[in-house]
Amino acid sequence: MAPELRTERELSLDFLRVTEAAAISAARTMGQGDRKYSDQVAVEAMREVMDTVPMRGRIVIGEGERDEAPMLFIGEEVGGGFGVSEEMAASCPEVDIAVDPLEGTNLCALGANNAIAVLAAAERGGLLHAPDIYMDKIVVGPSSRGVVDIDAPVKDNLRNIARRLGRDIEDLTVIILDRPRHKKIIDDVRTAGARIRLISDGDLSAGISAAVAGTNIHACIGIGGAPEGVLTAAAIKCLNGEIQARLVFDPDRLGVDKGKVPPAEQVIERLKSMGITDPNKTYDTDDLAPGKKIIFAASGQSSTLKNIPLTQAVSEANNGQYSKIVVNGNELDSINYLAKGTIASHSVCRIQLKDARGNLIGYASGFLIGPGLLMTNHHVFGRPADAATSIADFDYELDIAGMERPPVRFGFEPESCLKDL
Questions:
Q1: Which residues contact 269 (CB under 8 A, 6 or more apart)?
Q2: What's the fold here for domain 130-290?
Q3: Which pLDDT does position 419 carry in this prediction?
Q4: pLDDT below 70 — which residues of the chain?
Q5: Which fold does the domain 1-127+292-332 belong to in CATH?
Q6: What per-residue string of b and e applies to 93-129 under the rule 16 or more CB within 10 Å gives b?
Q7: What 3-state DSSP class applies to 320?
Q8: Domains 130-290 and 337-416 share a fold
Q9: Which of 227, 242, 334, 345 is 20 to 30 A from 235 via CA?
Q10: Half-sphere exposure of residue 262, counting CA atoms within 13 Å on the CB side?
Q11: Could you tell me the residue ranges of all domains in the chain?
């Protein structure tokens, strides 16, 4: 019988281990001023743990091209589903993976908040293969879906967001990367009357915060990395928000010298090789993350994600590391899991512990591991003879009226009791 295919829920916990490993490793370098080293240890930790995940993964967004990065490069195969038997490989799902082992390397090097380790995963073809260039973006939460347009004036978008949220424009806060290229956007937001939170790095976590209630961020606007745009889209899709985006490789729009940006012809050829035929296309959430089953996991140092209240698990590193998982897709279990649970429960028993006179002295539990062979904790029976007067009750449960059902009762054979395994 072949092993069952891993579910999204099981993989989500595996992916959380992956991002936590990267975040914990990077956390040990916080404030040391070496961003390259911080990134290196995060990459190595993420790659090591990723190979323990039972999947056949393929990196679609990572640390660069094959000749640019030693690991987690685009196209690299990762996971424990390679080099194993066909039967075992068949139980490992094929997954496309986008990673940023340390988003905000400068923040980590400076000991600041908002450096995070991120992973997004989907079925094959579920994430856009984005080039490592810039991307113009606007991100909003679920309440503002469908009312923003990346081509509309900033004031119009803010007015529509305010209307949806039932507040004035003056009550909105927009998060923007503090870059010279954003001078006009910053001026337009302030002219419209909204507040601004300027950040030095980390537009991925900024985009996510715009889609989560309680962050007091209502939109993220501006130009950041295209790979980060895809990762943001994966999270936004899970959170039911919206992102619109467009690739940018015009040095004038970016406010940089032409020598710092590849020639347009070179970029267009690169886009074609990745299957992108329209360099001016406006992407929506489903274009960037078309997958039907998407998992997004993020882990940060210190209080990095403390104000992004997704599903939370706290790890014991750096005074409490916060990690989040969001899953998009159908998480409903089939009703037959109830029947499966009932079948499994038949092997579990309640043990009535009794003294030599037959007096009840306590309870324990055990379960069958073979015909006539029951396993329980080592401390339950101090010596084999203690099992002589004790009883195992199977199918011990309450009926719908809260009354005890008659159990199936067995005694123990002390001479067959094994204390040390």
A1: none
A2: D-Maltodextrin-Binding Protein; domain 2 (3.40.190)
A3: 64
A4: 1-9, 65-67, 301-334, 419-421
A5: Fructose-1,6-Bisphosphatase; Chain A, domain 1 (3.30.540)
A6: bebbbbbbbbbbbebbbbebbbbbbbbbbbbeebbbb
A7: coil
A8: no
A9: 334
A10: 13
A11: 1-127+292-332, 130-290, 337-416
Whole-number Å distance between alpha carbons of 207 and 203: 6
Q: What angle do CA 292, 75, 70 make, to 5 degrees?
A: 130
Query: pTM for this one?
Result: 0.73
pLDDT, one tens digit per residue, over 345-358 is 889 999 999 888 88
Strands (E), 231-328: 242-248, 294-300, 311-315, 321-328
Arch. (CATH architecture) of 337-416? Beta Barrel (2.40)
CA 406, distance to chain mean position in Å, is 46
pLDDT (tens digit per residue) in 234-286: 999 988 899 999 999 988 888 877 777 888 888 899 888 888 889 999 999 99
From edge to edge, which strands make up the β-sheet containing 373-376?
373-376, 360-370, 348-354, 391-394, 408-411
Tokens linked to 341: 């649970």
- Residue listed under structure tokens 């007067």: 389
Single-letter residue type at 178 = D
